Amino acid sequence: MISGHVFLRRREWALLASLMTVVSALTAAERQRLIPLSVLAASPHAVGEARLWSLLTSALLVQSPLFWSLGSFALLGALTLKVCGTRVLLISALAGHVASTLVVYALLALARTVDSRAFEAVLSAPDYGVSAISAAWLGAIASVSWRARDRTLRGKIATALAVVATALFGWTLRRHLSFLDLEHVVAFGIGVVVAVRLCGTGEPLGRRPGVADALNAATRRRRFDEGMERDYARRISALCARFFAW
């Protein structure tokens, strides 16, 4: 029989559940003031003072609205696991958040060499949330979908529209943008690159090897069992024929 875990495998559900648990628990702890936001959130000032752990801890907090932020984060995580696999999920999440933050902070520093008063408001502003990870996952999904072998022009247009719709949905949750929001654009690009490097040539969408292998193995097993049953039936019939002939 085919396992009931068709959309995601059991270990993938466990990975996603663990990630959601950590994010939810750390967000709840910060909301209850058990851990100060200044300890967890990154900022250009914090990174400049070598508080590098904030590059990681800032990715484990969710901004308001909590329900929609957590829900969309979980959905994108599940879709990334389904379409791209575990390696792309983890690598794009880490690179998408950390690298995009460092790239934008470097651009900010470069801009301030030209004008020392530029973007002063964001220097110490708390920079946290799962949105950069979500953007990287969206980039990975879009990359695999766009490059799928069975993808038609209509399918590519649908992929582009889905990306735009997701970006607009994210914008409606916050409604204000700053220089630091360039992280989402950089993270999206990182997700695309990670998927291209790790997923290789596009496969037909929804035909990830793990699922296809399980289905093919189950089909082969069923055919083998049916063949064995027919072979046993022929042997029994032959033995009966010999017995009655004797």
Describe this structure in words.
With 246 residues, this protein is mainly α. Helix content is 72%, strand content 0%. The protein contains ten helices and no strands. Helix 5 (66-83) packs parallel to helix 7, helix 6 (86-114) packs across helix 7 and helix 7 (131-147) packs antiparallel against helix 8. The chain is globular, with a radius of gyration of 25 Å. The model is unreliable at 210-215 (pLDDT under 50).
Quick overview:
The chain is an all-alpha fold and 246 residues long. The chain is 72% helix and 0% strand.
> How would you spell out the order of helices and strands?
HHHHHHHHHH
CATH topology of the largest domain: Rhomboid-like fold
Which bin fits the share of residues in helices? over 70%
Uncertain ranges: 210-215
* End-to-end separation: 42 Å
| The CATH C-level class name of the largest domain | Mainly Alpha
Which range does the strand content fall in?
A: under 5%
Largest sheet at a glance? none
CATH homologous superfamily of the largest domain, by name? Rhomboid-like
Average the pLDDT over all residues and give the rounded result. Answer: 84
Our Rg estimate from Cα atoms comes to 25 Å
How many distinct domains? Answer: 2
**CATH architecture identity of the largest domain:** Up-down Bundle
* Continuous helix count: 10
Q: Total strand count, please?
A: 0
Shape: globular
What structural category characterises the helix and strand content?
Answer: mainly alpha
